[in-house]
């Protein structure tokens, strides 16, 4: 069933588990995410970035919204990193039930003002809103405290931001970053900061850049001819700890892309004569589904739907 993001996330924060928001760009990813959720009896958020909406167009948004309605578990269709009011309106018109407005690169007052405008429009049509405060950046352990402070989410500001904007859930910057290179060794995560934010902000909190970039997946990608540098992700224990402290929505894109592409490479390497797309997209879709399921287990959302 198609539900709002808040409906899913409120319960998650209250009960102390996390819900995955998985980025999709095509039919195969969408099927993988929805099938994983149904098999795991897990609520889920299907996330489409502006890039996904551009790439997949009406075909993808139609499929996402209609399949979410038919799903046997709660599904929110979410706009990831909406960059403007116009972009959010497009998502609302397409039937999304959750939107993110990301003005985190603007100054505090502008972020508040722009977010507030989106909240008014989205709430008018029953859609809930994610906003972001702070800069997502991979941070090395040795970086000076004041430097970290300038980038990461300030707890008191977070409280004021949520009160002034009326946003429903908040993306926080606590050390994670997007993509496959999140910092040396075990990337730095500021759990004490998260704890202080959670004490002041009762709304569900969101963790972007949360992919694990599993070494075995990176190795598989490499072994199949893929080229990738010193890729690192967020340690599963760091995710668990963040969920225990108040993170309710966890975004994952990179892990799914890696799995999908590794399997396509492997399959085509093994069968150079193959040119039926179903023969390599099928196994790749299956690999995405397995990653989604293992993320759901880590987040504790299995059996919650
Ligand atoms: O945070 C960004 C997501 O991974 C989506 O990326 O803009 O390349 O679709 P994208
Ligand atoms: P990853 O790059 O770690 O998968 O993060 C995705 C994300 O935050 C999408 O908004
Ligand atoms: Na998002
Ligand atoms: Zn993100």
| Name of the top-level CATH class | Alpha Beta
Shape: globular
Roughly what percent helix? 40-55%
Instruction: Describe the sheet with the most strands.
Output: 8 strands, parallel, barrel
CATH superfamily grouping: Aldolase class I
Oligomer: single chain
Q: Give the helix/strand class.
A: alpha/beta
- Report low-confidence residues grouped into runs of 5 or more: none
How many domains?
Answer: 1
Instruction: Report the CATH topology name.
Output: TIM Barrel
- Give the CA-CA distance, first to last residue: 11 Å
InterPro entries: Aldolase_TIM (IPR013785), Class_II_FBP_aldolase (IPR050246), FBA_II (IPR000771), Fruc_bis_ald_class-2 (IPR011289)
Cofactor: Zn(2+)
Keywords: Lyase, Metal-binding, Zinc
Protein name: Fructose-1,6-bisphosphate aldolase, class II
Describe the protein in words:
The protein is α/β, with parallel strands linked by helices and 305 residues long. The chain has a single domain, classed as TIM Barrel (Alpha-Beta Barrel). It has 12 helices and 8 strands. Strands 1-2-3-4-5-6-7-8 form an 8-stranded parallel beta barrel, surrounded by 9 helices. α2 crosses α12, α4 (85-93) runs parallel beside α5 and α11 packs antiparallel against α12 (277-299). Bound molecules: glyceraldehyde-3-phosphate (G3H), 1,3-dihydroxyacetonephosphate, sodium ion and zinc ion. Glyceraldehyde-3-phosphate (G3H) is lined by residues 23, 49, 51-52, 80-81, 178, 253. Keywords: Lyase, Metal-binding, Zinc.
